[in-house]
Amino acid sequence: MPNSDNTYGTFNKRTSHFSQIDDGSSALTVFADTDAAKSHFFTTEALAVWDECCTTLQWALLADDNGDNTKLKVTFDFGTKGTPGLAEADDWAGQYNSRKQALQDSDGWFANGTTVTPDQTDHLF
To answer: What are phi and psi of 53, to 5 degrees?
Structure first.
């Protein structure tokens, strides 16, 4: 569950799309729901980072050109802990970035091959 630190508003809203790598050698997984898609694309540790660091977080399935739900979309933003003098790296967005980078560096962010399309404007909220 996302954190609830929205007393001072939320910031840095972003939306990204995640697609399976389609090399033509096998069929893509069609997802029944967002939980199945999240588990396909991300490790348990990565999902914990999303849940702990984001203040607002919403997921949705996306259909491919065949109309099958083979993709995932996320919109997220961050509140602030509101502690005077808190270093930017220790606030929620900084924690998200550093924890994500640590998992990426150890090949622990994505659970399967994934193509990321960041900086989308079709926000979910």
So the answer is: -95, -30
